[in-house]
Write a structure and sequence with these properties.
It contains 14 helices and 9 strands. It is α+β, with helices and mostly antiparallel strands and about 350 residues long.
Length: about 350
């Protein structure tokens, strides 16, 4: 079960750069580190050095570049969420919390290894598909576009961070959250009090098959002839999505025409009305716009509803447990820090000054 992470880790889950892990402590770093603390570089090795190591956490390293990138991402998130005096207060502690978060992520990763907790490819894929579903993204490309716009990272990097987040959540779930008792009556009470949070307006999901009419009357006639062939193939039992991939001129052809879940008002009225009149699996009559000939196939539709408690119970459990577990999580992390080998290669006060 996924668990919400403590404040110091939220920025990491949101997308701070993964830092390096080494099998042995590196012998040296660039100018700025102390030679007597880390050894002397051979000439051949010196040319390979690129980054200054700030902190060594067990067999992991945190470099200045990693910390700076993490701080910049965290500050950007704070500017989006807060303003005024509250923002100023958050910014004062952001660097220290971000550094602590980087350290804690390594410690939780090592703990996951000790416990034999792993996140496989299938589990990672399921997490990404759930994120797409919850945010109405039809394809990985749609998700990546949104990630790049909001966080400036690739889908591969996002997936890596989601995998890391899952490991952290599973460790905390096993060692902390599982020991925090919550009664069913508390879940029911929270659900009723926040019922509006679980409202889902009516929505539908369709596939489209679009054939452009072209610029000339001849082009339009050719388009009509092609659409007639498509309709004949459908009548003969051909799969709608196969015909989309073969004949559609819209960008959605790569996904079999699937437009993802949409609420009312996103499609042209003519198309939306046709979509709502269909049953799942049915194909609309031929529709025409100024530029295109269009067929729609309904995948599914849902009327206005509230998500049932059973569907959101795990999420509510997280929300109810989080305040109860806050102190327990901090004690757990503090214990990991105490047991770990954490060495500052640059004095901590200098690291925090930037």
């Amino acid at each position: 079960m996924k668990r919400a992470l403590p404040l110091a880790l939220l920025a990491l889950v949101g997308g701070l750069a993964c830092h390096k892990k080494v099998n042995t402590v590196p012998p040296a770093v660039v100018a700025g580190a102390q030679p007597d603390a880390i050894g002397t570089l051979a000439p051949a090795e010196a040319s390979k050095v690129r980054e200054e190591i700030l902190v060594i956490v067990n067999n992991h390293i945190i470099t200045r570049r990693t910390l700076q990138q993490a701080v910049e991402e965290q500050n950007a998130a704070l500017y989006r969420e807060f303003s005024g005096a509250e923002l100023d207060g958050k910014l004062k502690t952001a660097r220290e919390l971000t550094l602590q978060g980087l350290i804690d992520v390594d410690l939780l990763g090592d703990k996951a290894d000790d416990l034999g907790i792993k996140v496989g490819d299938d589990q990672t894929r399921a997490m990404i598909d759930q994120i797409k579903k919850e945010n109405n993204f039809a394809t990985d490309a749609d998700l990546e576009k949104a990630i790049k716009a909001s966080a400036g990272i690739s889908l591969d990097e996002f997936i890596k961070r989601q995998r890391q987040s899952s490991l952290q959540q599973q460790v905390l779930g096993r060692d902390v959250y599982s020991k925090i008792a919550v009664e069913d009556s508390e879940l029911q009470a929270y659900y009723q009090l926040h019922l509006s949070d679980y409202a889902q307006p009516s929505r539908f999901r369709v596939r489209e098959l679009v054939i452009a009419k072209g610029a000339t009357p001849a082009d339009t006639e050719a388009a009509r002839a092609k659409m007639a062939e498509v309709q004949k193939a459908l009548a003969g039992g051909a799969k709608f999505e196969d015909l989309v991939k073969a004949d559609s001129t819209a960008a959605s052809k790569d996904t079999g025409g699937d437009l993802g879940w949409m609420q009312k008002g996103l499609l042209q009225p003519q198309l939306e009305q046709a979509a709502w009149a269909l049953k799942a699996g049915e194909v609309s009559p031929l529709m025409e716009t100024d530029k295109d000939l269009i067929l729609l196939q309904l995948i599914a539709k849902e009327d206005d509803r509230h998500q049932p408690l059973a569907e959101v119970k795990d999420k509510i459990l997280e929300k109810v447990q989080e305040p109860k577990a806050k102190n327990a999580v901090e004690r757990y992390l503090q214990d990991l820090r105490t047991r770990a080998n954490i060495r500052y290669m640059v004095p901590k006060d200098q690291v925090l000054k930037g």
